[in-house]
Each structure stands twice: as structure tokens, then as C-alpha cells.
Amino acid sequence: MTIPTQNLSLALAFDPAALETAKVTAERDLGEFLAVQAIATPEQRALVAELLSSAAREADAVEAMRTSATKPLNQTKRTIDSWFKPTLDAYKRFREHGLNLLGAYDLAVAKREREAQAAALAAVQARDMPALAQALTTVNAPREASHGATTRLVWVAEVLDLAAVPEAFTRRVLDDAAIERHIAAAGVLEPAAVPGLKFTQVAAGGRVSR
């Protein structure tokens, strides 16, 4: 692989002075706009809507300045990433395979220890001293020292029969899709009452035209 040696530095594709002017204007306009606490008349609503459109156009212009700088940078980053990706991917696969090997081994050891503990308990109950001694040999065996890598063994649950799972391990979950269909069916009217639910109309965002 040949890495290009040309200078990868990037000159700004926009005028920093223009960005500073936009920043000052935006902060000034925001302060004035936040001072407006409520709309009382249709004329005031129309003015606020026009101010939103004007601010959206200004934001678009600033976003265009930003992308004029970041687009070339992103391309440069993708190019550099492509140089390192094959090597890093190889080390990633190395790590994953090694941890899989360690995990399989540690799971087998943990299983043997559980079986030995169960055997030791059964030997105690049966007063079988030779069997107890043999089981304790496994239970008390020292763990191999781990150098450089470790695994973490955890228990996970797999649902075999949801109906058989006690309520203490389940919870009722609302069907959001069904609720949305119920609301949509009402159109602009208030949705029909549903036991346990309260429907409240709120202003959920909006659209600003440029």
C-alpha cells in the first residue's frame, strides 16, 4: 500500500469574518426573540412565523459554510481511515477469536466446578467420604493465573414459555402502535376514551418554511 505524501491540510472554504458576523447576529436576535413570552394577536403570530422563516434561512447559510469546510475534511478522514482499516480489522478479528477461545475454556471450567460442587453436596448428604474428597479436589483446584486477558462469565435468560414466567419477572408494556392508530382514527377530534389512558392535545414541533 502506498500512502500519498501530499499535504493533507485544508484551507478554510469560508470567510471566518462572515461566520463571526453571523454569530453576533444570531446571539443578538436570539436574545430579543426569547424576550417574547406569548402571542396575543394574529398579527403577532404572523410576525413570529416570518421571524422563524428568516432565522431558518440564516441557519441554512451558516450550515452551508460549515459543510463547505467539513465535507473535504470528511473525505480526507475516510481516505486516512482506509489506510489503517485492514490492519485494525485484522487485530480486531485476532482479539475476537482469542476471547472466544478463552470464553469457551472458562465456561467449561465453570461448568466442571458447578458439577463438582453438586457432587460434593451429594457426597456429604450420602456420607460418602471418598466421593467428597474427589469432588473437593476439583472445587478447591487453584485457578490458572490470567496474563493479559480475562473473560467475564454472565448468566442470560432465554424465554421458553412467556405465559409460564411469573409476573414478578414480567411487566405490562403499552402497545404504542395501537394507541397511535386509535388517535389517528379520530382525525382532528379528541380520541374516544380508553380506560387507563388520558388523551391531551399538545403542540408537537412544526415546520418552518424558508
What is the gist of this entry?
The chain is an all-alpha fold and 210 residues long.
Task: Describe the protein in words.
The chain has 210 residues and is an all-alpha fold. The chain has one domain (16-142, 155-185). 60% of the residues lie in helices and 0% in strands. It has four helices and no strands. Helix 2 runs antiparallel to helix 3 (129-139). The relative contact order is 0.07.
Q: Tell me roughly what share of residues is in helical segments.
A: 55-70%
- The total beta strand count reads 0
- What number is the mean pLDDT? 85
Specify the number of helices: 4
Q: Tell me the domain tally.
A: 1
Which tags fit this structure?
flat, 210 residues, 4 helices, mainly alpha
Give the helix/strand layout.
Blueprint (H helix, E strand, L loop, with lengths): L15 H19 L7 H85 L2 H11 L36 H10 L25
Helix pairs in contact: 2-3
